[in-house]
User: What shape does this take?
Amino acid sequence: MTSAGAGRRQAPAPGRGGKPVLRRAARAEWGPLLRTVRAALAASRLRAIPVTLTAVGLTLVFQFVQNQAWGYRAVQNIGSVQADEHLWLALLRTPLSLFVPALDLPVWGALAQILVVFGIAEICVGRRQMLAVAYLATLAGTMYARIGIWIGPVSPLGLPDSDKYVTDTGPSAAVVGLAVFVCWRYRAWFTCAAVAVAMVVEVVSIKNNLAGKEHVAAVLAVLVLCGLMELWSPRKPGDAQRVSGSAHPR
Assistant: This one.
């Protein structure tokens, strides 16, 4: 070998050791989830998320009706929840309250949340689990409102008495609950922690009100559910790699 040849160093082959650390971390975090969503949409397109599309349509209908003089009271009677109402009435209204957009927020925000998060959840965990977790998270917020008012404003966990008259509707509690649940199922631990921390930061620094604290209650309720499911059916070592190829009951 000549001295010139000895001094040359062979360039590393493409794809070997050249992947940025962040790209590898992102693939490890979201790769299985994204592959599941991509495969379902490629195979069935919008037929993969019929419940999500129904929820979007229902939200649009409620938005239109509640903004009409003849429809506002009807929507309030079937989907509006307040902490000063009888508990049984609030429980009856809670499922539909998820699809009634808050009057003080733009409806496109609620629609985007439902389409993206509900759609991912419907594909990744199945319709039944999606609906069950969404209801659990919304119910946790409804129940927290009553508990928080009972505790009172003397505690950081409490609420002022005036909050019992606040109309409590919208999909946000269900959205954060579903985000945590899907991240747990797909072992996206960083994202799961980020959602939980973001909800706490929201209460501490941005939105220290009923809505913000309900988000924290929803996250806690779903985390408890995830813990119980983890204990009830512990995963085997290879389950995290196989989750993207599993079939979830519809």
